[in-house]
User: What shape does this take?
Amino acid sequence: MNATEKFEHSIEFFNREREKEEILSILRQEPREINFIYGPINSGKTTLIQKLIDDLPKDKYVVFYINLRGKLIKEYGGFVRVLFKVKRKEISEKVIEKGEKLAKKALVLAGRYLSGIPIEKDMLDGFLETKSSEDVFEFLEEYFLKISETKIPILIIDELQVIGDLEINGKAIYKLFNFFIRLTKELHICHVFALSSDSLFIERVYAEAMLEGRTNYLLVDDFDKETARKFLEKYNFGDTDIAIQYFGGKPGDLIKLLAQNKDITIFMKETTDEKKRFLIDMLDELLYVKPKIEIGKEKIPVERHKIIDVLKKFKDKEETEDVEISRPEKIYLVNRNILFVNSKSGIIKPQSKIILTAIREILKEIK
Ligand SMILES: Nc1ncnc2c1ncn2[C@@H]1O[C@H](COP(=O)(O)OP(=O)(O)OP(=O)(O)O)[C@@H](O)[C@H]1O
Ligand SMILES: [Mg+2]
Assistant: This one.
């Protein structure tokens, strides 16, 4: 039974031809850069990369996919544990029987993808004891070199921002970036993809001097209007014009719409009202408190009237340029998942069409 047969509303992977081609063309060349896949919330970044992994020829690539979502990583041990996966006993015994080296085991085990670098438990314990990330990266370099003798390794880290602020004798992310640069720009042995929907994290990465000239950015945005229309038509949805007007092309929102049985105008009003209440509550709170945003070493208060000025930029436009926008208020709104910043193009827009509609409606109501 496949996914479409299992559930009444199962949705097949749709389109993304341009993005798929972009990634496949990266995979056809030798690894040179770290690839950052970014985009608004629920735009389909994870789904796209999973689909690509599924479709890749298994005899050519070995894919390691590590998702940091929901992982609470506070120290070195947690960081090391997410990178590795201790192999189940029977697998390791079978492989030992064959007398293969560690990296070769990964080649044997590579089915769909590996959700961590498979190692023996005593090796993981060793890494955890030494408390030095140098050993780990040395090991991993050797590991990927070995794999690259016969196949092309692909390392994918989803939700990379989770370790954005982690400190392990300095920022862990810098060590990871150095390692990624080693794998790509210097050794050309492993493709590296990092995914994130945290646009402030991507903004920091974009401005990071050590990554200058060593990165490639791929935007996975919501579907454009035409694609959204085709997507809805595929599932025989009737009111495509209204749907796109209110839900835009966000796959996550369109799927919710397809899955519900209410009249579209009622559903639309309910979802917009929910976002309106969230925005109104936020503005109400700002009447009493001034949250502080850290910029450099300074802590700068967020001003309610400046928040409203930023929101007003979307009164007649769907997006605006990231210039002359008050920085603390921009950061505050991005942190609250109200706005999305595209650092590469310098464009800011609401995270979804529903939020845009809610912003416009509350602007009419507030003083
Ligand atoms: N191309 C697509 N075809 C069909 N459904 C899709 C497609 N892209 C995404 N979806 C659906 O939209 C929802 C959101 O997708 P996904 O989780 O991949 O987004 P994301 O960008 O990774 O989200 P987040 O910002 O939370 O990381 C999922 O239910 C997924 O199945
Ligand atoms: Mg995701």
Observations:
- Residues 1-5, 90-100 have pLDDT under 50 and may be disordered.
- The radius of gyration is 23 Å.
- The chain has two domains: 17-219, 270-365.
- Residues 11, 13-16, 39, 41-47, 197, 251-252, 255 surround adenosine-5'-triphosphate (ligand 1) (CB under 6 Å).
